[in-house]
Fold these 3 entries.
Entry 1:
Amino acid sequence: MKTLTQTSTSDNKYSITFDNLTPRTEYIIKINLFPKYSMKIDQIVGRTTGEKPSILSASAILDLSKTSCFISWIKGRETGIIGAKIVVTSSLYKKAPGVPDIVTTVTHIPPSGISPYQFPTQPNRKHVITIAAKTCSEVGSYIVATGQCISPVQAPASIPTPTTVGSSASTSHIQVNKADETNGPISCYLVIGGKEGSNIYRDSYTWMEIENLITTSNSSTYCAANLPRFNETSKQVGLSSTTTTQCKVNTSYAISCTNKLLTNGVTYKFQVVTLTLGDRVYLTQTSQPVVTTPLASSNTTIIAVVVVAVCMLIALVGAVYFYRKRKNVPLKQGRSQRVHFVQNEGAVQQDVINCEEAYANLEVNPNPNLKNTSHKSSDNQSKDALQQDTTNTEEAYEEFNIQNTKLDIPASLLVRTYKDMLASNEAAFKKQFQVK
């Protein structure tokens, strides 16, 4: 309801103008005169005329940079059209499995009111554009713009920094966190690393650089793992192994990565690189690097300590052995390891002759009580005994040896003692056959 007040005139003629009325709409007007003449005039019924504003045609197209959408239109012949109203409904163009759709509706009113109009787009979006003509009092019917305003797939805006799990080379893992796929589905996650100091961190990789990295085995930078896209929050990959992982970049082409063993005590850097299949190109995005220095595990430490202890023990035993060997050299020079006392055959014969001469020179006093037969018998027995003693002496010379090399007895002392023993036996022998 709208109320208008008109001041009195001298000729009692009044005129009131109503603006901003809606075309093709019925209005009721009531007039009251006051205060002197309080009377009511019958109400007046009025209806506005006119036609709704219209848009004859509209189209949409991406600009050359593919980051904006141009909308152009042709308005109808109706009077009073001052501009247009544009409603843009966008959703994901390519959607990976498990990724929810994102639908937004935005209304645009071009400030100039004339065609064309440009608005920015987001990656991986398809847009449904409707447009209507607008007057100062109403908006006409919407029509759908023709053409395609679809923004292309892009790599993720950012990649979460990976984390490492485990302290030793044998237990080291890297945790790859899932990246946002609003800009387009990710085909593969590559874990690229190398020893610290090598060119392992890059802000970006081209597809050719990725291929060279995979096919060159002797490079300081290598591909440790290649994971297909996953719906889980994260995945872990062993860093120290020689396993080969594979991922399909598209339905007809796959790439492989072969891991390498880590060395305890060496610092490594790793980063995650994603591959996204765009419009006949492979798009990459890199994460910030993570640094890890594997330490020797407890089992490895114990083994290393045992090996060192065994080596030290072997060295100690070897030192003692060579020390004793060098210490025993003078002893071996002073005594024979196996001493043989051997008298040559001439010496033995000489001893026999000396014994026989000693027997022949014995003074025998005649005794009438003794008979020649008995004396001869005694002589024969004595000769047999002498020969047996000589034989035993010779065998003693030849067989006598020292078996125990640990006895620290000079050889000269043994020889002298043995000769004294022989002399004593010879004296006793002579004494036995001395005739009183």
Note: The CA atoms of residues 132 and 142 lie 4 Å apart.
Entry 2:
Amino acid sequence: MTDTINATPAQVLATPMQSNDAEAATVGEYLIKLLADVWREQECFNGKRPFGNSGWDYELIEALVRAGLIDGEIDEDGTLMRSDDEAGSRLIAEAIQGMSAAWTEGKR
């Protein structure tokens, strides 16, 4: 699967989320809640189930599929059936880097 659109980190971060365990409205808010949980829980943080769900990373991938940013399929029941995980991971990693770059530029 290689059908992806070129999305900026800002576009990825603004991507709306479907119902999710973090109760986040956008991908960016989801990532901020994830970081906040790491900070709050520290050594007790559960990276496998940060919001009580072992499939938490697929909540992000699903949002990218629903927004048409990566190739994938949602069935008639609204379940993610397939996705271009490699492209999704790349977009999320670039969005995280974009958050860092925006913060760094704001510090200048």
Note: The first helix runs from residue 9 to 13.
Entry 3:
Amino acid sequence: MSLNFSNFRRSIVPLRKYIGEVSSSGSWDGSEINHLSLKVQRFCQDALISFPKSLAVSGRSPRFHETLKISVENIVLIFLHDLLWALVCSIHRDQDTRIHSLLTSLYRQGLGGRGRAGRGLELREELCVPLPAALVELSALDQANTPLDRLTVIHDTVNQLHAHVREYLEKTNPKQGYSSYPSQQEETVLLSTLIIQSRLRHICSTIFYIKHFGFSSPSTLVYSFQTFQCSIEYLEKLDNRTKPTQPPGLKLEDLIRIADRLERRKSEELEILTNPVQELYFRDLIQRLELCSMELTKTQEEHWTRLGREVSETDEEGRKEDRSLLSLLHQKLLCNKTILENG
């Protein structure tokens, strides 16, 4: 039976209903997703078989059939995109959030370049070039629909990246030519800087969508997709290397224990941790706390003594100053506040 638009709309309804049932179940495992992928692929094959055949000589060429196959699959996925994409995003919501947080963290650390790509990463200085057009291409990835559309965006991004680097090298070092053209690793790093700057929100969903529902991806786009995956893996490894190591600190329980020991003025050894470096740190902390406490006590005693002498002084008329209990207490509190501020 020849395929027309009305027949196509009717034939795709059961498949859309099945996808909706899978999405509403709320429990997805690998077998269900693989089964769904096979059903969609089988429907694409049936649609290709039902497509009207061309009588022209060009219609019998392998290149024409390959292009027709890719086009039919893309049309089918356009009609299924709203359901499939919502399902994929639901499955990878946590992974997408984690990767987006990673990109935001790396961007705040200045590893995205912010003008010149590759700054702060493992890249030669001569390859740290601005990549504005490539960034614009990659930023549109979340707005693409089908797996083919997303593959095309990634491929165009890589092509723009190469065009930027080629143009920059020709301007800065025309004699050297392409001898300093980026290697595969450097290409991965350059694409990583674009991913950091774009801070895409659905990277894991995009990779899964292309892998499971991009059935006839053109070979020219596959390499760019593999580079994109390598860039994500590079960023995840980079995050583990750039995480700051926390210095050995004090727990709240340890601070409370030290305060109790100082309060009771016991001379026993402090046995909190067995690490010699941390033990020396504890002892130094105790000594500094004791000195600070003695200096504060000495300063307070001097101020109280001076305040007591001022109470007994008389004014110019030989009368004792009027020192009520409230005014005396007020001055003592002010004195104590001044000591704390100066300390």
Note: Residues 244-248, 265-274, 314-322 have pLDDT under 50 and may be disordered.
